[in-house]
Amino acid sequence: MKCLPQDCFVRPLPVHLIAPLCLALCLPAATLAADPKLPIFDAHVHYSHDAWDRTPPKEAIAILRKAGLKRAMVSSSSDDGTQKLYAEAPDLVVPSLRPYRKRGEISTWVRDESIVPHLEDRLRRFRYAAIGEFHVYGPDADLPVVRRMVQLAKQYKLWLHLHGDSDAIERVLVQDPEARILWAHSGFDRPEAVRAMLRKHRKLYADLAFRNDHASSGKIDPAWREAFIEFPDRFLVGTDTFTPERWYYIAEHADWSRAWLADLPRDIAERIGWRNGETLFASMMATK
């Protein structure tokens, strides 16, 4: 299977997710918010070089504000994109440091020792709430470059935004049992498997970016509902603007998220919609 564009996946998707993800790219405009006032913390936004070429910082910030986002956790390839947006709107943007300096490093960074001084330099110079989103699977999580990144996250008290499988998460937690991990896309795993991982690891959290198998037409899938009810403090929503075009989908995704969140009790909807992100990530920027 040919890989999707950079900043998306490096492995074929499970069959049970292909159809939902295709739908996520073209949700009908009719999926408007049941509660248009609900703030949204978008935990998965990228603003890489081809995005800022097409959508300059002021325009990008206008898109985020028009979508009604309370905050957006932003990372980019290179990190210059994140810094452009943070300089433009520090009240809105929560910076996260990707190890990637350019497109094309998703599958090579784990064996590229030059990544380490890049991370060390950026961490000395700028403020972040997390390192990531980064892609790592299985035994690759034990490679020296990844180990050093985990050490840096511990040193700077940062989150790790990990796009990978449960094996990679387990290996990172062996290196640092206190590591705080945001599992990108909930690992593209089934809700039962995600719940099992959340039960096992108290500092593991999960975003729902680039998947919509958890809800349809404003109604939440029963298995996912059980997950949200059991772990209301452990999920966050996210768009995943892995291509420049997806920047114009941010507002629609926020409205779609509000619609299915309205199918939950209000307090849980607020936690998943924005309070979890505000508590876990935005608060870090406010107190530094």
What's this entry about, in short?
By secondary structure, the chain is an alpha/beta fold. It contains eleven helices and ten strands.
Observed structural traits:
11 helices; eight-stranded parallel β-sheet; TIM Barrel; 288 residues; alpha/beta; globular; two-stranded antiparallel sheet
Question: Overview of this structure, please?
Answer:
The protein has about 290 residues and is α/β, with parallel strands linked by helices. The protein has one domain (about 35-285): TIM Barrel, CATH 3.20.20.140. The protein has eleven helices and ten strands. Strands 1-2-3-4-5-6-7-10 form an eight-stranded parallel β-sheet, with helices on both faces. A two-stranded antiparallel ribbon has the order 8-9. Helix 5 packs parallel to helix 6 (about 145-155) and helix 8 packs parallel to helix 9. Residues about 1-35 have low confidence and may be disordered.
Q: Could you name the ranges where pLDDT drops below 50 across 5 or more consecutive residues?
A: 1-33
Q: What is the second-level CATH architecture?
A: Alpha-Beta Barrel
Strands ordered across the widest β-sheet? 1-2-3-4-5-6-7-10
CATH superfamily: Metal-dependent hydrolases
Report the helical percentage: 40-55%
What is the overall silhouette? globular
CATH class placement:
Alpha Beta
What's the pLDDT, averaged over the residues?
90
